[in-house]
Amino acid sequence: MNEEEIIKLIKSKSQAIGENLLLSTELTEIKDKIEEFLDRNLKGEGLLSLRYRKFKLPSKPRTLWSDTSGFPMGGENWLKPYVDFFEQYITEKKIINRLEDEKLWVESRTQGNEQHLLIGDKQHDGQKVHLIFGETGEIRIDKKDQPPAEVFRKVESVLTKSDGSAVKSTLEFFKEKID
């Protein structure tokens, strides 16, 4: 399974897991799919990979106990560490692209379901604008950074849906008050 399929699996089963509606065998199948993904993707010397390696040590058995009807006892807590490792993997995964010219630099960072756009003016002490594009098309401004009007006038976000239709969002900035 790829990460999108794991996300769909977790979302589709989370309420049933929380209400203890899945049999132990069904919960084990979900855990096995998440674990297989993590085993493939959490390798190397990164901190998360090292934590996962320690978590998986055979000296720490993680037994799922069931009642007489086949439902797990504490199943949500048994599965939680696997879901947590998966969510941390998604959160830490970043794709960074950078462009620059004589006056500006632009960096795009995709992390999880958001895209962060950082724009800086090379001629003003490293000041930057930080815009966040969410999965629903909204545009947010990171409050810690400089106001966007200092660098540019307008930001547009275009999302293309699977059927080919587009959703466009625009955020405009004005330096002067318009009456």
Topology, please?
Layout: H1 3-18, H2 24-41, H3 47-55, E1 65-66, E2 72-73, H4 75-92, E3 94-100, E4 104-111, E5 114-121, E6 128-133, E7 139-141, E8 154-160, E9 166-172
Antiparallel strand pairs: 1-2, 3-4, 4-5, 5-6, 6-7, 8-9
What is this entry, summarized?
With 179 residues, the chain is of the alpha+beta class. The chain has helices at residues 3-18, 24-41, 47-55, 75-92; strands at residues 65-66, 72-73, 94-100, 104-111, 114-121, 128-133, 139-141, 154-160, 166-172. The protein folds into two domains: 3-92, no CATH class; 103-172, no CATH class.
Polypeptide structure, described:
With 179 residues, the protein is an alpha+beta fold. It folds into two domains: 3-92, no CATH class; 103-172, no CATH class. It contains four helices and nine strands. The chain has helices spanning 3-18, 24-41, 47-55, 75-92; strands at 65-66, 72-73, 94-100, 104-111, 114-121, 128-133, 139-141, 154-160, 166-172. The strands form three sheets. The protein has a five-stranded antiparallel β-sheet with strand order 3-4-5-6-7. A two-stranded antiparallel ribbon has the order 1-2. A hairpin with a 2-residue loop joins strand 4 and strand 5 (114-121). It is elongated and about 70 Å long. The termini are far apart. The mean pLDDT is 80.
Keyphrases for this structure?
alpha+beta; 9 strands; elongated; two-stranded antiparallel ribbon; 2 domains; 5-stranded antiparallel sheet
Name the helix and strand elements from N-terminus to C-terminus, one letter apiece: HHHEEHEEEEEEE
Main sheet overview? 5 strands, antiparallel
Shape: elongated
Task: State the domain count.
Answer: 2
Strand order of the largest sheet: 3-4-5-6-7
Mean pLDDT: 80
Total of helices? 4
Number of strands: 9
The secondary structure category is alpha+beta
- Radius of gyration based on Cα positions: 22 Å
Helical fraction equals 25-40%
